Amino acid sequence: MTLDKGIHKYDPHMIAEEKKQAIIDYRKCFRVYNQLVDLKDKKINQKYLMYRFQSEEKNSVDDAKAKAKINEEVQEVVTQLEMADKLKDEAYAEMQRVETKIQFILDSNSIKRAEMKLSGFST
């Protein structure tokens, strides 16, 4: 975001570096999100088996699934998953911001080229 100000505003190398960093951040956030989804599923399956077969009280399949989903360990992972989803959305928005900036620069350059051609014909 700080690259939008100052002398390096339209520097192609800085814009390319900004785009590269935005893509890296987005993919990193996406990987963390997917890992947390897998961890949540694993915890739910572990807790289901515990409630279904190792518990003192005998639970039905539906009761064991419900208890597994509201377990404390699973809820901690769900909280982390929500935070990772928010970070993933922010990283995606940053990547789209850089793409939009590039498109605006390209549009601006093409308009300037068209104006130069038109001014060349009029003289």
Describe the structure in your own words.
By secondary structure, this protein is an all-alpha fold. It has one domain (9-98). The protein contains 3 helices and no strands. The protein has helices at 12-54, 61-69, 72-122.
Detail the topology: elements first, then pairings.
Blueprint: H1 12-54, H2 61-69, H3 72-122
Helix pairs in contact: 1-2, 1-3
Give keywords.
mainly alpha, 84% helix, 3 helices, 123 residues, rod-shaped, single chain
Write a brief caption for the model.
This protein is mostly helical and about 120 residues long. It has 3 helices and no strands.
Number of strands: 0
Strand proportion = under 5%
Radius of gyration over C-alpha positions, nearest whole angstrom: 26 Å
Q: How many domains?
A: 1
Kindly name the structural category: mainly alpha
Output the helix-strand order. Answer: HHH
Major sheet description:
none
Q: How much helix, percentage-wise, in residues?
A: over 70%
Distance between the termini: 42 Å
> What gross morphology would you assign?
rod-shaped
The helix tally amounts to 3
